[in-house]
Design brief:
The structure holds two protein chains of two kinds. Chain A is an all-beta fold. Chain A has no helices and eleven strands. The chains are: A mainly beta, B mainly beta. Chains A and B meet through strand 9 and strand 10 of A and strand 4, strand 5 and strand 9 of B.
Chain lengths: ~110, ~110
């Protein structure tokens, strides 16, 4: 399958700081990328959908000013968690969609805000 | 509301047995169907996809799709302890490219 690389795999940050997570498609062009959040033993929650060169579409209840998404190229999307708080601690996962219908996931980023 | 339903489990099967995982969906116009495996603490990994009615086999895995009854299933033959994971069903509704995920079924294969 296609390779999607997500970085960093884990990060610890202080409350009030911002954290940037990168998601790269390594061997295909990702026209669409999805960002998910997953709390322990919970299901995947779609946060937003981003298309290259366009503004991201956020799901209801997700603060677009807090979770900044940039999809400037066909191989890179970034999620920035701004002014992070302990309740933002979670497992953040990106997935990428190319010309086919199968979406491939990055390795995920475990964010801990202290 | 387009929904994808899975029994959360856990489904417990002995090693060597067939594990059967089921998923139903509400949007009759759905076109694409996927099974992902997610180990604890890891991200989901695509293991099967199916578009047409019938069976699709890949190694020990068989995906079965029945659009008339709106269900898709995953069979794992000769189950191994390493198959123990949560299996997520995903469906792309008609007219959309955004997959809708079920909550996942936890599978435990015991020696």
């Amino acid at each position: 399958g296609a390779v999607v690389s997500q970085h960093p795999s884990w990060v610890i940050c202080k409350s009030g700081t911002s954290v940037k997570i990168e998601c790269r498609s390594l061997d295909f062009q990702a026209t669409t990328m999805f960002w998910y959040r997953q709390f322990p033993k919970q299901s995947l929650m779609l946060m937003a959908t981003s298309n290259e060169g366009s503004k991201a579409t956020y799901e209801q209840g997700v603060e677009k000013d807090k979770f900044l998404i940039n999809h400037a190229s066909l191989t890179l999307s970034t999620l920035t968690v701004t002014s992070a708080h302990p309740e933002d601690s979670s497992f953040y996962i990106c997935s990428a969609l190319g010309q086919t219908t199968e979406a491939f996931f990055g390795q995920g980023t475990r964010l801990t805000v202290v | 509301q387009k929904e994808v339903e899975q029994n959360s489990g856990p489904l417990s099967v002995p090693e060597g047995a067939i594990a059967s995982l089921n998923c139903t969906y509400s949007d009759r116009g759905s076109q694409s169907f996927f099974w992902y495996r997610q180990y604890s603490g890891k991200s989901p990994e695509l293991i099967m996809f199916i578009y047409s009615n019938g069976d699709k086999e890949d190694g020990r895995f068989t995906a079965q799709l029945n659009k008339a009854s709106q269900y898709v299933s995953l069979l794992i033959r000769d189950s191994q302890p390493s198959d123990s994971a949560t299996y997520l069903c995903a469906v792309t509704p008609g007219g959309s490219y955004i997959p809708t995920f079920g909550r996942g079924t936890s599978l435990i294969v015991h020696p």
